[in-house]
């Protein structure tokens, strides 16, 4: 069995990438209400602050901060994944290994996390989260993607509404006006 090294920081801020098993799926945006409910219920049970979040058709990125003294991000991600899976119909293809374990074939088993280490690190990851729909070609302007905390950040005067309205090859990721 593989051994994964996780950097546990009680009360820490983390960036995550969470992927669907089927990378060409649109499952997350097609069932966005089920995903939102899974996140909402998990936050009620295991509180955390959402600093930034974007949902794309086949994966999502988020930056969250855990409560002081709490480093258990893994069970929060697990709870969100489980709640989402239970809320949607079982129509996905499953590999034999998944069938043998009684698992659905929705999520990749692992996720990627990064502990945020500085204000600059935080800013760069938040920019990455919000720019991701443009990077993947879903929209040409950040503000046009509906499944993002970018709109909340604009309302809080953290970003101008026209942030990153440049060609993708001109965008210096991590910088803002």
From TrEMBL:
One of its GO terms (biological process) is DNA transposition. GO terms for molecular function: sequence-specific DNA binding; transposase activity. It holds the Pfam family Y1_Tnp. Signal peptide: none annotated. Residues 9-132 form the Transposase IS200-like domain. PANTHER family: REP-ASSOCIATED TYROSINE TRANSPOSASE. This is Putative transposase. It comes from Thiocapsa roseopersicina.
